[in-house]
Amino acid sequence: MQPVHIDYEKCNEDGICADVCPRKLIAFTKENSKPIPIPEIEELCISCGHCLAVCPSGAISLKEASPDACTMLNKKLWPGYDQLDHLLRSRRSIRVYKDKPVDRRTIEELLDTCRYAPSGSNSQPVKWIIASGRDRLRALGQIVIDWMKDAIESKHPLAEKLPLSAYVAGWEKGEDRIFRNAPMVVMTHAVELGSLPLESSVIAMTYFELAANIKGLGACWIGFLMHAANLNPPIKKSLGIPEDHKLCGAMSVGYSKYVYQRIPPRNQADVVWW
Roughly what angle, to the nearest 10 degrees, separates helices 134-153 and 164-172? Predict the structure, then answer.
């Protein structure tokens, strides 16, 4: 079956589908008047759904979906710019959490939203790992600390740039400065040689973090876990990440112990206008 099917009885021959196709896989000319998939479409189509989403008459179906199976876009449900602006400005990295578990159903709802994050060539490469429970996170934190100790001993460049000794000392005194006693850690990984795997993962996790705020959750990116896993293959293996994949993102997640009251200032955007 062709990846794109056009119902010509519904088609109003406006050529919009051909115009928006990122790979120009639908031919349309005024002389021909009908949009026609090119012969190479089966091997080149990335199933992004642009043609299906944009068609005013609902004449286009994909192998994966028909117009009737899609949710209709409703801009009345969009937040106003002021609301969106306030949400983005008020996001904070949360490092002090309530002793309260995060419901699995809440995370499933967030992941259901995050699967719509854009990805390179619609490859949708992002895989998720959700870790929770004190014992499991303590063991994972110890793995990161052991990596830090090795980095300090071997005089790894990161050990000179980052205060690893302070994190190790805090851990040995019983302080969790890796996950900050969060009840959950969310991680993403993707095939390393894919189409923009790191960028796709970061976008998906940014979706997650912002949507989590609406659910009353806070999060904090954990760069040390990413460094440890990607510089030490056994750590990556212990997380169940395939050899050809890279840990692209990690963040602690939970309910903030405190409510932030203000939005501190930030530097003005550094822009060059061409």
Answer: 140
User: Which class is 82-254 in CATH?
Assistant: alpha beta
Q: What is the DSSP string of 180-223?
A: TT-SEEEEEEEETTSSSHHHHHHHHHHHHHHHHHHTT-EEEE-H
| Residue 4 β-bridge partners | 62
Query: What's the CATH number for 4-69?
Result: 3.30.70.20
Dump pLDDT digits (tens) for 230-250.
Answer: 888 888 888 999 999 999 999
Q: Which two tokens stand for residue 49?
A: 């759904």
What integer is the mean pLDDT of 89-104? 97
What pLDDT does residue 5 have? Answer: 95
Residue 32 has pLDDT above 80, yes or no: no
Q: How far is CA 219 from the centre of its chain?
A: 14
Q: How many CA atoms lie within 13 A of 159 on its CB side?
A: 15
Write out the two tokens for 140.
């994972």
DSSP code for 68: G
Q: Which of 51, 82, 52, 85 is nearest to 66 (CA)?
A: 52
**What are the domain boundaries of the chain?**
4-69, 82-254
